[in-house]
Design goal:
- The protein is mainly alpha-helical.
- It has one domain.
- It is built from 13 helices and two strands; from the N terminus they run αααααααααααββαα.
- Strands 1-2 form a two-stranded antiparallel ribbon.
- The protein is globular, with a radius of gyration of 20 Å.
- The termini are far apart.
């Protein structure tokens, strides 16, 4: 196995980890407008992700950095061709971070409402646009013989990619609602469980249509397997939610996100960005990769530091594993 195969797998794992972890962050941010009945309950929802959301974003930075170092041609073409949607995602992530950090700095309802809107839209926009972006990556875009994107922004808004955006939006929101049910107590917990069961039906229909479309257009035997497993994990998550077993429900909703992302990367391989103009113009793991020496250095760095990062993040989740409720919010903070 060449190192560019290893790094394609590593990047797939990094993006999968990002969608698994940041997915429920996005879901919680979206649910602040649906589950919370007042400011105190909204504070509870935000506190469920408060200790971990910024650490989860590290997976995005690492995935982007790995793409830049391991496949510079892929990174350059992707970030130039997808400039506007990726810029919108970046702005949304910044706005969301400001909302989480600043909503508690003021005392008036108007101040908090404005920052709550930032959290909502800062979660909704990336949850949708990541699906649009990866839908286009799998489907392919207009690349010329120099691997330059020659399409327009509107070419990215094709039916397959838009459906991908609806799938990620619904799956991440479902993932977030199951996480809220797992992390909270009392009425919020029951409300989140009911919401997950209702949204799960919509998410299941969208996901099945998208995965079947992916299989028919780009699929292999492996993608068929992961797609079926993803659907089964989603059904299992809804069943566990109905049974009140939130831990299993969260593991299975996360498993659905992981398997759906794996399906996309398996459908993409060995390309990293197909061309819809000509197969000869496509970027592959071979023609888009860095030099063997660069990949070798990166491998040693990853072997040394990745276990440390994973251990630290696992420790963080262990420390903040307990459920919270409205009683957990200090009176001064909720006033």
């Amino acid at each position: 196995m060449h190192l560019y195969h290893l790094w394609f797998i590593a990047i797939a794992v990094l993006w999968t980890g990002y969608f698994f972890l940041e997915g429920f962050d996005f879901g919680v941010g979206i649910l602040t407008r649906f589950l919370a009945r007042n400011d105190l309950e909204r504070r509870v929802l935000i506190n469920t992700i408060g200790p971990v959301w910024d650490g989860n974003e590290v997976w995005l930075l690492t995935a982007g950095g790995a793409m830049f170092a391991a496949f510079p041609e892929w990174y350059a073409t992707l970030f130039s061709g997808f400039y506007l949607p990726l810029l919108l995602i970046l702005v949304a992530l910044i706005v969301r971070a400001m909302g989480i950090d600043y909503r508690g700095k003021g005392t008036t309802p108007r101040w908090r409402d404005r920052w709550d809107l930032c959290i909502f839209f800062g979660s909704l926009v990336p949850a949708f646009l990541w699906g649009v972006a990866f839908g286009n990556i799998v489907r392919g875009v207009k690349l010329d013989e120099n691997h330059h994107y020659v399409g327009t922004f509107w070419d990215l808004l094709n039916p397959y990619a838009l459906l991908g955006g609806l799938v990620t939006l619904s799956l991440f929101t479902l993932h977030g609602s199951v996480f809220v049910a797992l992390k909270t107590e009392g009425e919020i917990r029951h409300r989140a469980s009911r919401f997950a069961q209702q949204l799960g039906l919509i998410a299941a229909v969208l996901a099945v249509i998208f995965l079947v479309w992916t299989q028919l257009a780009h699929g292999t035997g492996w993608t068929a397997l992961t797609a079926v497993l993803a659907a089964l994990a989603l059904v299992g998550s809804l069943a566990m939610t109905r049974a009140g077993r939130e831990g299993w429900a969260f593991a299975l909703s996360g498993g659905c996100v992981i398997l759906a992302t794996a399906t996309l990367f398996l459908a993409l391989y060995p390309d990293v960005l197909p061309s819809t103009i000509s197969d000869a113009n496509s970027l592959t793991i071979e023609n888009a990769s860095a030099t063997p020496k660069s990949l070798g250095i990166m491998t040693w760095v990853a072997v040394i530091f990745l276990p440390l990062v994973l251990a630290y993040q696992a420790w963080t989740y262990w420390v903040f594993r307990k459920r919270i409720g409205t009683h957990s919010i200090p009176v001064a903070a909720s006033a």
